[in-house]
Amino acid sequence: MRPDTPAENVDHNAEAARLERTADRYPEDAEALLLQAAAHLELAGDRPAASSLYDRLLSSSQVLENPHLVRALKAANLWEYGHEAEARAIIEGVRVAAPRDPAPWVIVAEALESHDELEQAQETFTEGARVLLTDVAEPPYSTHPLLFGRHRVRRMLGLAHDDWDVLADTLHTSPVSLDELHDPKRVWSLGSENPAELEAEISRLRAELGTFREALSRPFPVAVLHWPTSELTELVDAYPSLSAEYPSHEEHLATIEASLRELSASGTANLGIVTGTVPSYEAFAASELMSPAEAALLPQYATTLAARGRAVEWPPQRGTACWCGSGRVYGECHGAGG
C-alpha cells in the first residue's frame, strides 16, 4: 500500500495477499510482513484467516523475534470472534512470560479492557510497567502507551493517582490533560444542551484525535546499520570497496555508538539499530537494480530494514544486553561512560 493511499480506499484482502506473497519471497522478513497481513485481514473482518497467519508464525521452524507479540495479537483477535477461553489462556501465558517488549503488554491489557475486565486490565498494565520501568530513569517512547493505558483504566476504576500516573501526565504532550481525556463522565457531556460544555468536549476530542494522529504518523526509528563480525567479514571480502566504510569491526561498532549519541544530543528522538546480513543486503541491492558494492546503498538498506520493523530501540533499557552482541550488559559495554 502506498503511504498516500487513503485508508478507506484500501482493499485489505488484496493487501494481505500481497504481503503473504512478499513473505514467501523474503522469509527473513516473514514475521513483520505476516503480522501486517494479519492486521489487514482483521480490518477486512476475516478474523479466522488472521488467526491462521498467527498460527503459521507460531508453528514456523524459524525463530521469531517477538513471539510474545504474535501470541498477544492472536489472543486479542480470538476474543473478538468468540474464542474467549483460548484468548484468556494465551493472555495469562503472555503475562507469566513477562516480555521485555511493551507491545505485548499493551495489546493483552487493552483486550481485557475492551471486554470490560477493568481490574485485570489494570493489573496487566501495572505488571508491564513493573517489569519494564522499575529503576528506569527515563521511560523509552515505546513504553508510553503502557503508562497511558494504565492511567486510562485506573481513571475508569476511580483509583487515586500514584507515581506512574503522575509520570504518565508528565509524558503526555497534548494540551488537554490525561485526566480530562480519560474522564469516564466525558461521554455524557455530548448529550448536554449547554453550548459551552459541548464546545469544551469538541475541543478535547480534537486534542485526543491529534494525539492519536501523532502516534500513528510517528516515523519508524532513525536507524543505524550494524553488521555482526562474521557478516562484516563476508561483506568486505565480497565487496572490497566497502572496506573504506568499514576499516575494522571495532571501529564500526564505535562509530555506531558515537553516531547515535550525536543524534541524541542534537534532539533526534526514536533512535534505533538494524542488523544487516549479506544475503538480505544483496537481495535488497538486486531489488534496487544497484551493485552491493555501492556505499550509497547502505543507508537506504538501513532505512528499509527499519521500515519493516527490524529496528531495535537505542539506547537499550537498563540492565539489558548491549546491542553489539557481546553478551555484556549495555552499561558495561558500549554504554559505559554514557
TrEMBL record:
Pfam families per record: SEC-C (PF02810)
Q: Which InterPro entries match?
A: SEC_C_motif, TPR-like_helical_dom_sf
Q: What is this protein called?
A: SEC-C domain-containing protein
Region (Disordered), start-end ranges: 1-22
